[in-house]
Specification:
mainly alpha
């Protein structure tokens, strides 16, 4: 089967998961009514549904499902391009400290009770600052820039993780500490349409240039010297990848909390399906990431009476796969 046909199948799977998710929940909705309600926004249809169905679909489930679609796609693509940049398939979006930085920003906002909107924005800004700090440190290093960036990212991420731990230590144990802890686990339970709109802007603005330059990432994976020989401005390309991937990661974490493993796991599944060509790999990662997070979020809100944080469910899937990848990489040596 050709790669284009595989991508079409993945798109159809995403569409099916997206539509079916509106009918899944404590208030179940017939799939036919779901389709009718969704289409009623675009074409006039005879009303065969009640007002409760319309409210559940558009006001309760729509913001959450759209957010899962955007965030799943963003984390997957960010992980995919980072793996290409660092030529290491074990790299994830957290490598440069964006997730821990955004996590600290949110924890700080919750600690000082500055309100949900300001907390989200602070989380986004601190996530960007964390990666900027890692990049600045790596540029001052005399060692290999790529290796230095990874080390700087680990250091910065560890620093912000320590600051999160300190905030949890001094936080009020009745209200603030549980709020920080639950947020860090990752969840879309309190997502609003305003959050979805907020996160969509940096994700879409970052996704577009990455899709346009995805063929150049193929050349970059061959090595920086080879890329420069073929006329690629390696430094500019690296900056574009880092900035766009960081914007997507920080925006995602700022509204959903830390959802691990998606950016590590999904690109590997995409490679199994379409191979290593980034012209297809990036699109496949985006489609699979969206479908995966929508699917997992359906479990999160229905698996028990109290909602299970997304970070827990993605870890159940990601951790075993990570061990398998380590085993296979050792087997190939």
């Amino acid at each position: 089967m050709s790669k284009n046909k595989k991508i079409i199948i993945m798109f159809l799977i995403l569409t099916a998961v997206f539509v079916m998710s509106f009918g899944i929940g404590k208030y179940s909705i017939n799939p036919i009514n779901v389709v009718k309600v969704l289409l009623s926004k675009f074409i006039p249809l005879k009303k065969t549904w009640d007002d409760n169905t319309y409210t559940v679909i558009y006001q309760i489930r729509m913001p959450r499902i759209l957010a899962a679609l955007l965030i799943g796609s963003a984390l997957s693509v960010a992980g995919c391009v980072y793996q290409g940049l660092f030529k290491n398939n074990m790299v994830s979006p957290e490598v440069l400290g964006a997730s821990n930085g955004a996590g600290f920003g949110a924890a700080l906002g919750i600690f000082f009770s500055i309100g949900y909107a300001k907390t989200t924005f602070l989380s986004f800004i601190v996530g960007l600052f964390a990666v900027s700090l890692a990049y600045f440190i790596s540029e001052k290093s005399r060692a290999d820039k790529t290796f230095s960036m990874i080390l700087a990212g680990i250091m910065v991420g560890s620093l912000f993780s320590a600051m999160i731990s300190y905030l949890k230590l001094i936080a009020d144990t009745d209200n603030t500490l549980p709020a920080i802890t639950y947020w860090l686990m990752g969840s879309l339970a309190s997502i609003k349409m305003s959050d979805t709109v907020f996160v969509s802007i940096p994700i879409i603005l970052s996704m577009i240039p990455l899709m346009l330059i995805r063929w150049r990432i193929n050349i970059l994976t061959m090595g920086e010297e080879e890329a420069a020989t073929l006329g690629i401005n390696v430094k500019v390309l690296k900056v574009i990848i880092i900035v766009t991937a960081t914007l997507m990661t920080s925006a995602s974490v700022s509204v959903s909390g830390i959802i691990g493993w998606v950016g590590l796991v999904i690109p590997h599944f995409a490679r199994m399906i379409v191979g290593y060509d980034y012209r297809y790999l990036l699109i496949s990662s985006a489609l699979l990431g969206s479908a995966f997070l929508i699917f997992v979020d359906n479990f999160a809100r229905n698996i028990s009476t109290s909602e299970v944080p997304l970070g827990i469910l993605t870890s159940f899937i990601g951790a075993p796969l990570f061990l398998y990848l380590i085993y296979k990489s050792g087997e190939n040596k």
